[in-house]
């Protein structure tokens, strides 16, 4: 019985360790988004998405949170509404150190903004997902 209990506890600890896998380990501890949005990391950069109503702003930073020229990155965006298979294209426009877009979610209380980000210094693009809850 004692061996069974030890095996069970070891298995539970292993599962807990595996459940942590997939989190963003490159994010600096205690990092807060400079513009008050949601921020995520990929290899060399941080991407922050700020949304208010139909307006979306995307900021790109280096790992020290220094703003980067958004026009240097190839970024595409689509919106996925809940229970809808069709993706809506979101047109992004580079303006200084940010990308801007307007997207009407059609009264949906939330949607997922899927960004495909290509850093010019990387050989591949990364996909990032941000859950957006439009605020009126």
What characteristics describe this protein?
single chain; 136 residues; mainly beta; Immunoglobulin-like; 5-stranded antiparallel β-sheet; 4-stranded antiparallel β-sheet; 1 helix; 40% strand
User: CATH superfamily membership, which one?
Assistant: Periplasmic metal-binding protein Tp34-type
Order of strands across the widest beta sheet? 1-2-3-7-6
Taken from the alpha-carbon principal axes, the silhouette is globular
Give the C-alpha Rg: 19 Å
Number of structurally distinct domains: 1
Order of helices and strands: HEEEEEEEEE
Quick one: CATH class?
A: Mainly Beta
Give the number of DSSP strands. Answer: 9
CATH fold node name: Immunoglobulin-like
Structure classification? mainly beta
Overall pLDDT level: 84
């Amino acid at each position: 019985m004692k061996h069974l209990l030890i095996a069970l506890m070891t298995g539970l600890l292993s599962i807990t360790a595996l459940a942590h896998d997939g989190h963003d380990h490159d994010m600096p501890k205690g990092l807060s988004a400079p513009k008050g949005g949601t921020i995520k990391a990929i290899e060399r950069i941080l991407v922050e998405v700020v949304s208010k109503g139909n307006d979306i702003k995307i900021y790109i930073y280096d790992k020290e949170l220094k703003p980067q020229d958004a026009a240097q990155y190839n970024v595409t965006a689509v919106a996925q509404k809940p229970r809808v298979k069709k993706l809506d294209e979101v047109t992004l426009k580079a303006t200084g150190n940010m990308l801007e877009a307007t997207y009407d979610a059609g009264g949906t209380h939330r949607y997922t903004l899927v960004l495909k980000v290509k850093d010019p210094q990387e050989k591949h693009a990364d996909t990032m997902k941000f859950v957006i809850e439009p605020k009126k």
